[in-house]
Design brief:
By secondary structure, this protein is α+β, with helices and mostly antiparallel strands. Helix content is 28%, strand content 37%. It has a seven-stranded mixed sheet. It is globular and about 40 Å long.
Length: 161
């Protein structure tokens, strides 16, 4: 497996993995994949893909939590793994590399919001040093069901310590 920076020509594969996550109902409140332009603008840096056997098996990206300068070192993590690559270590490799790269870029806090039903994602984040900081009850409605979101965060031991 190789982890590398995401390129614009990866979008078709990244979009397909994102679509799969949307269809699962347990990955995001989104109901349709955004255009490349919208996704690209929302994830301006730190975007990775994992390649396995010549195909993109997953992706991870960091989004700024705010445009206020005091939050310049705080990012929100997204990690998506293709259906056929789940349980093979792709997600862990992506998240570990994203954490490493985020610290190199000066991030001191990473956050994630995960549906309680997405047990694999919760295990992954906790294995990579994230801790549960709370639950936002009935945060949003998805397909007629109000959903809770577990908030997780990881504080760098290198940046802002």
């Amino acid at each position: 497996m190789t982890v590398r920076d995401l390129r614009p020509d990866d979008w078709a594969a990244v979009r397909a993995i994102y679509d799969d996550g949307i269809r699962s109902g347990d990955a995001t409140f989104e109901t349709e994949t955004p255009s490349w332009e919208r996704w690209d603008a929302g994830h301006p840096e730190l975007r990775l893909v994992a390649e396995r056997d010549g195909s993109i098996a997953g992706w991870a990206a960091l989004s700024p939590v705010s445009d206020r300068c005091c939050y310049g070192g705080v990012g929100e993590v997204s990690v998506y793994v293709g259906e056929t690559a789940r349980g093979t270590g792709v997600g862990r490799e992506l998240l570990e590399r994203l954490v490493e790269r985020s610290e190199e870029a000066g991030y001191w806090t990473l956050s994630a919001g995960v549906f309680p039903e997405n047990e694999a994602s919760l295990r992954l984040h906790k294995a990579c040093g994230f801790r549960e900081v709370g639950v936002r009850e009935r945060l949003g409605e998805l397909r007629g069901v109000w959903r809770d979101v577990i908030l997780l965060e990881r504080r760098s031991r290198l940046v802002g310590a």
